[in-house]
Each structure stands twice: as structure tokens, then as C-alpha cells.
Specification:
Elements (H helix, E strand, L loop, with lengths): L7 H11 L10 H8 L3 H13 L3 E3 L6 E3 L1 H13 L2 H16 L2 E8 L2 E8 L21 H9 L2 H11 L7 H17 L16 E7 L8 E7 L6 H23 L21
Antiparallel strand pairs: 1-2, 3-4, 3-6, 5-6
Length: 274
């Protein structure tokens, strides 16, 4: 980011922490460097510093790092401060059980979405996405739903920040925004075209939610393997159920329904920050 206020070293340190995923059995410096795109020498300094501060632990078993106790403190603090997550948990678990899909909560992380919570259907075994996975904005139902509901004044900034990740050009972002906003107006949920989806083995439907505690919308998603979740099932059953569940969360939180998106808003200039 070209701004004198931007602390590059801090951003790099946070990118190291974001490299960890729920299924990892620790990460070495080489793996962290590969995931972050940082030089290995830089990663070595950052992991040493983060380990010294308690944000990473280092058991000296094959020189692999793991999230440390200081991150647990921050995670518990965030969970306590952001009340809608715990309120949403029983609703999303019920939805997962009733639809046989995996329910997820995602937030934007730069030019990607980031899975921060998952709810698995009881009694159904399959391959699932994990906390920490980062679907792209371009080519995921969650990313399209976010672009379709972002306030116009921040949409251009988000596209610029994505830096063309997975082909998210300004023109492509505007097309996604118009289509997603139209879907939200017509049916209250978003389904990305499976032909454009970033992973062929996942089908998903998404609904945005606007929490008071955060400055940006988050997205709730239901997903499963294509043979378990057809496009028709998303349109006729799972999409409406997800939409109604998010509306129920809004009622419990005492929030009015999110403002209707305006498809024409995608015609703003995305070549520069708004």
C-alpha cells in the first residue's frame, strides 16, 4: 500500500499469522514463505519475533511453528467483542443439519474471503473446507455476495486492494457486482456461476450480513460437493433457507434488514480508490 502511515513490517507479521490453517500440523519457515510470498530470510526474523512474544510456539520438532497462547487471548477477546458470532452459532448449526451442507462464516481478507467459522452437519462425512481457507473474491459465491453488497464508497477501494487477484479486473468486478446485486434483489441470496467457480468440487450459496460491530459486511455460506448440492437444490431449498436464517439473525439482533443493493452502483469508476 502506497501510504506513509502503512506499517509494512506489521503487515508482514500479520500475514505470517494468517498463513496458518486449522488442519496444519505446524509450519516451517519455508512453508510460511511459500504461503505468504515473503523471502525466507524475512519469514525467519518474523517467526522468531512472533515466537518470542507468544504469538507462535516452537517445539523444535522439525523446526515447525504453531499458533501460540497470545493468539488464543486475542481470539477469545474478539469472540467476546463480536456478539453476533455466538448468537448465529445455533442458527447455523441447525441450518447445516437441516440442509446437509456445511455452513460457514467468511470475512474479507484483502483480495480473498477468509473462512472464520464452520458448522458441519451431524452424521454426514465428506471433504470440507477448513477455518483459515481463503476463497477468492472472483469465482466464489461468498466473494460475489460481498461485492454485490459493499457500499459504493468502498467498492472501488476493495477492487484496487485485490490487485487483480484471480483476474478481478475493474471490469470483471463491476460485472460481478451487477449480477450479485440483481440476485440479492430478486431472491435474497447469491450463487456464482459454477462454470466460473474457483473449485470444481464445491457448490455454494451465500447471503451477506451487516453486523453493527464491523465496518464491512460479512457473508454466511452453505456449501457441499456438487453431487450433494445441485444448482437446483441451492435455488429451491438451500438458498431460501440460508436467506431466512440470516433474516432470523437480524431479528434476534434487533437489526433492520440490510438495505437493498443497487445494481447500477457497479458503474462507478473502479480504476482508482473511491
Amino acid at each position: 500500500m502506497d501510504d506513509r502511515r502503512f506499517a509494512t513490517t506489521l503487515a508482514r507479521g500479520l500475514s505470517v499469522l494468517r498463513a496458518f490453517r486449522a488442519g496444519d500440523d505446524g509450519l516451517g519457515n519455508a512453508e510460511i514463505a511459500e504461503r505468504t510470498g515473503l523471502p525466507k530470510s524475512t519469514v525467519s526474523r518474523l517467526t522468531f519475533t512472533l515466537q518470542s512474544l507468544g504469538y507462535l510456539t516452537h517445539t523444535r520438532r522439525h523446526d515447525r511453528y504453531r499458533p501460540g497462547p497470545a493468539l488464543l487471548v486475542l481470539g477469545n477477546l474478539a469472540a467476546t467483542s463480536i456478539s453476533f458470532v455466538e448468537i448465529a452459532a445455533p442458527l447455523m448449526q441447525r441450518l447445516a443439519d437441516e440442509t446437509g451442507t456445511m455452513s460457514l462464516l467468511l470475512v474479507r481478507d484483502g483480495g480473498h474471503m477468509l473462512i472464520v467459522r464452520t458448522w458441519r452437519p451431524r452424521g454426514i462425512a465428506s471433504l470440507w473446507l477448513e477455518v483459515g481457507a481463503r476463497p477468492p473474491l472472483n469465482g466464489s459465491s461468498s466473494g460475489h455476495a460481498l461485492l454485490g453488497t459493499l457500499p459504493a464508497e468502498t467498492f472501488g477501494n476493495v477492487v484496487t486492494e485485490s490487485d487483480g487477484a484471480r483476474g478481478l479486473t475493474p471490469a470483471r468486478a463491476a460485472t460481478i457486482r451487477r449480477d450479485a446485486a440483481g440476485q440479492l434483489l430478486a431472491q435474497g441470496y447469491v450463487i456464482a456461476d459454477p462454470a466460473e467457480y474457483f473449485a470444481a468440487n464445491i457448490h455454494a450459496v451465500a447471503v451477506p450480513f451487516h453486523p453493527r460491530e464491523l465496518g464491512e459486511p460479512v457473508v454466511f455460506t452453505c456449501g457441499a460437493l456438487p453431487e450433494m448440492l445441485t444448482v437446483e437444490a441451492m435455488r429451491s431449498r438451500v438458498g431460501p433457507a440460508l436467506r431466512d436464517t440470516v433474516r432470523e439473525l437480524e431479528r434476534i439482533m434487533g437489526q433492520p434488514p440490510a438495505p437493498a443493493p443497487i445494481p447500477e452502483a457497479a458503474d462507478i469508476d473502479t480504476r482508482r480508490p473511491a
